[in-house]
Amino acid sequence: MNLTTCGLTEEDVELIVKRFLQEKRDKYNAKFRVLSYRVDRLSEEPIGYLGDHYFLNVVLREKMVHYSEEEEEYAEEEYLSFFMKILPEQVPKLADYVKEMGCFKKEIQLYTHLIPRLQDVAIGTKPFAPRAYLTKEDKMLVFENLKVEGYRMVENNKSLLDYAHLEVALKTVAKLHAASLVLEERTKQPITKLYSGHLNENVYIDDEKYVRKTNLDNAIKALSELIKRIDKYKNSDQLALILEKFPAVIRKIYDFAKPSTRYRNVFNHGDLWNNNLMFKYEELDKSSRANSDAGLNIEGGAAEGAATAAPHGLPTPTGGIILDFQLSRYAPPALDVFTVIMLSTTSEFRALHMESLLNVYYDALAEHVAAQGLALSQLLPRSEFDASCDHYHLAGLIENCLFCHLILIPMNLAKPMMATSESFDDFIRNGATKVQLCIDSYEQDETFRTRLTDMLSELIENAFWIVCVIVSWIGSALLIEASLEAFRTSAISFVVETSYRDWNTKFPAVVVCEMRNMERIQAVADDLWGPDHDFAMEEVLNEISYFRGESYHTLNECGGEDTTENCFFSNFSSYARLVRSSCEDTLEECYWNDKPFDCCKYFQPMETELGLCYAVNSLQTSAKNPLKIDMISNKYTGPGKLRISVLTEAFIYTLGEEDVPNLITPKSEVLLIDYYISYKRQISIKDIENDPETKQVSVEQRKCRFPDENILDVHAYYSYSACSVQCRKDKQLKTCNCTNHLMPNSDPAQRCDMAGLVCLNTNYEELTIVIPSWSTGKRGVVCDCLPSCTEVDIAIVHDWRESIFNPEKRYSTIEIELSALPTERYKRNVVRGRLDLVVSVGGTTGLFVGASLLSFVEIIYYFTIRPYGTVFMRKIRTRLHQHQHQ
User: Fold this and answer.
1) How far apart are CA 125 and CA 175, in angstroms?
2) Which among 205, 523, 773, 874 has most CB atoms closer than 10 A?
């Protein structure tokens, strides 16, 4: 071969020889002179298509210090032989294919960085891979010639290995995997992070533009045609179904080839078939180790300087070595294990020896890991390995079909395909060409026909049942998931009801909260500080008693270093109680539908963040057993009307029975009451009716809470308004480590003193204004509060105001009435309850997997009661037998 063409220089040859002498003979300063070197093709037969393969034969003479030039001229010459793998640039289509896969680049990266480090990890044991003496420009690798070390490849064996060879192969693979595990444990990092990109997948990539995707699709077509020719399937009623499901089974290899998220991953070889395994036989005479071809290597390339031998009559191998790391990946060990077992055996052989072979591998792996001071039970427990074997068994069957439909093509049919660049490219990319070649091989070659029939039958029998079960369970799972999702997110529906003739409509809660009472403030101030007190303290007392979140006068008079006389700095709630009016001083002359009732008997005290209020028809009053007045409106009573007289300036709130007045109640919904004014307000109401099963649906599903589903401490019943009060209380505690003194049901120890009021005033906007979670750039508090399930929609229809001319008495009158009986209301229906979910899940499992409640009982029985019963009966029979014997 032209050395310039292959890119090998004299300096390269000297470097190769130097590295060889250093490693094999420990000669680190050896002086030598290369006399000549020659590159010879390994075989005239096609060896493989992922590279061209050659021998590099070197003649050298070692220099001796005491030799004269004349003596050195007659010194003994030495012959060295190396193996070369070169990018097949002389066949452009083939070279492009190899470059697209990145085979050479990957193998050069691995032999330059990762494999030497793994060999160092496994120091003290025989190497698992040949030594690379030169890697060059992503297109050349030069290795040691393994035949010199006594290694040879098993030939004429139909790509099958006997138990002894397979045992050695698995132990060698275990050595590679053990080094991978030990390296990761020592560095505490995965190999993919230590050597980023070195083990990226380059075979099974599900990308329409990738050439290997085309290869796999063509392989599916070829294998499908072979299935049609297998006797047991060609006339089967299931043939159409098998052919329909078969592509999906083969394409599972895309997922199998990815790093597992469930099982421990290691450095996987990825190409473990017969021609990538060499074995050492110490008993053989070296003179018998002659070079010969290794057969057609479709996936992996040639052996590094391989000598070949017949499989029968060989001595038992004493060692093994792995070749060609062009398709390596990062995956669980089971993928490599099943690849080498499946590709090297028949189904009959595996039925007899599979368990034993798995034990051989795991025991060897444990031994190599233990030699490095680690316990395999901690890195890869046997239970995890067995589980991964169950999972990757199908992957091995798939790999068997994908490899063997190529590597078993008889030589007389393979040669024309490899003869030219065009014929090779046609085979790789043209599905019809591959299909026809496989059909011809099946019809003409007994080995191809027998092996493909065996592996396809096993794959179908294993995978077809698995696929059917998986598809059934997937279908069942998808429908169950859809049912669960619908149950979680769409269990409730809202409708509008209009069948209003028989409705009873509750009148809303009416709450009266004193807004201001300067006469009370003056009287309390006189009692506390005498008639000559500083009148600025009355403003302080007003702010404290009717606290609304800000304290301008209080902080101005008492919050600084120079405080006004008579300032008070804590116990603000006591001062508020002194000022706030009693019910009798707030209300009089109450009427429901023009019928009088005792105001303070039914208007009960209510603690709110606005202070003490009085409410009728509310759940949130402070009374333990409040008296209720029947305030129902229906077709018999007509629209209800409430009329009251208020003796002080106040706020009037019209709310749902579970709602409470608070600082963020919209002002449009509040009546501001002043003296000598008669107010009249007409309202409309839309209630919410709940399906009786609504309470059985979770809060997350219905997205609301019933009043008795309370999670708050500020009020006894849940409502959106009560929740917002709780939210602001929590925010006050978090920001200022205290809460305002009017906060209902608050611990006196948590109420703010003067320093706390300063904090509340400083952070007024953050503590008072409620903003939505999606709002950005605004100041406020986010309150994630659900609405009440019984929330009432109250709308103002019309407001009137008239003056009262009665100089003898200061008061105001308020009349609140329904403008009309409601003709619509909302209805919350349960469309997917728990029973519906049970029926849906039961129907789905029955449809797809034929399961019923009894099936699950049987499963529990099979794995619990039955084993116990079996053991118990065995003991009874043993005792009975012993008794009879006696």
Assistant:
1) 9
2) 205
HSE-CB at 694 with a 13 A cutoff on CA atoms is: 20
The pLDDT tens digits for 235-293 are: 888 899 889 989 999 999 999 999 999 999 999 999 998 889 999 987 654 444 433 33
Q: What is the mean pLDDT of residues 167-189?
A: 95
Task: With H, G, I as helix, E, B as strand and everything else as coil, classify residue 512.
Answer: strand
Residue type at 48?
G
Q: At what angle do helices 382-407 and 211-227 cross, to 10 degrees?
A: 80
- Per-residue pLDDT at 87: 84
User: 615 — phi, psi (to 5°)?
Assistant: -135, 145
Give the Cα separation of 363 and 382 in Å (integer).
10
What residues contact residue 172 under an 8 Å CB cut-off, 6+ apart? 128, 277, 319, 320, 321, 322
Instruction: Give the bridge partners for 751, in sequence order.
Output: 739
Q: Which domains does the chain carry?
A: 10-206+251-408 (no CATH), 499-517+580-707+789-831 (2.60.470.10)
Arithmetic mean of pLDDT, 697-704: 89
CB 760 within 8 A of CB 729: no
The helix/strand/coil state of 326 is coil
Task: Calculate the CA dihedral of residues 103, 106, 109, 111 and round it to 10 degrees.
Answer: -70
The strands making up 140-144's β-sheet, listed across from edge to edge, are: 32-41, 52-62, 78-86, 140-144, 132-136
Write down the pLDDT at residue 414.
84
737-765 pLDDT, tens digit per residue, is 999 999 999 999 999 999 999 999 999 98
pLDDT confidence band for 68 (50 / 70 / 90): low
Q: Which two tokens stand for residue 694?
A: 């609504």
Higher pLDDT, 112 or 211: 112
Identify the bridge partners of residue 152 per DSSP, sorted by sequence position.
279, 307
Residue 448's CB is within 10 A of a number of other CB atoms, namely: 23
8 A C-beta contact, residue 841 and residue 535: no
Quick count: other Cβ atoms within 10 Å of Cβ 849?
Answer: 14
Instruction: Determine the Cα–Cα distance for residues 838 and 659; give it in Å rounded to an integer.
Output: 37
Q: Does the pLDDT value for residue 36 go beyond 50?
A: yes
pLDDT in tens, 617-658: 999 998 888 888 899 999 999 999 999 999 999 999 999 999
pTM value is 0.56
pLDDT of residue 64: 59
Model confidence at 877: pLDDT above 80? no
Read off the tokens for 698. Answer: 């979770």
Give me the chain's average pLDDT, please: 86
Q: Give CB contacts under 8 A, 24+ apart, made by 160-164.
A: 160/274, 160/311, 160/344, 160/345, 160/346, 161/274, 161/277, 161/311, 161/344, 161/345, 162/311, 163/353, 163/357, 164/316, 164/317
Which residues pair with residue 135 across a beta bridge? Answer: 141
Cα distance between residue 411 and residue 293, in whole Å: 12
Start-to-end CA span in the chain (Å): 89
Beta bridge mates, 56 = 39, 82
Residue pair 1/115 in contact (Cβ under 8 Å)? The answer is no
How high is the pLDDT of residue 297? 37
Quote the CA–CA distance of 520 and 173 in Å, as a whole number.
Answer: 95
pLDDT reported for residue 368? 94
CA distance to 122, 175, 520, per residue, from 125 (Å): 6, 9, 99
Name the residue among 518, 286, 269, 500 with its Cα closest to residue 399.
269
Q: Over the range 183-214, which residues count as b (16 or more CB within 10 Å of their CB) and which as e?
A: bbbeeeebbbeebeebbebbbbbeeeebebbb
Pick from 813, 800, 802: nearest CA to 591:
813
- 297: tokens are 């290597």
Instruction: Choose between 189 and 847: higher pLDDT.
Output: 189
Instruction: For 465, list phi and psi in degrees, rounded to 5.
Output: -65, -45
Token pair recorded at residue 48:
């493989």
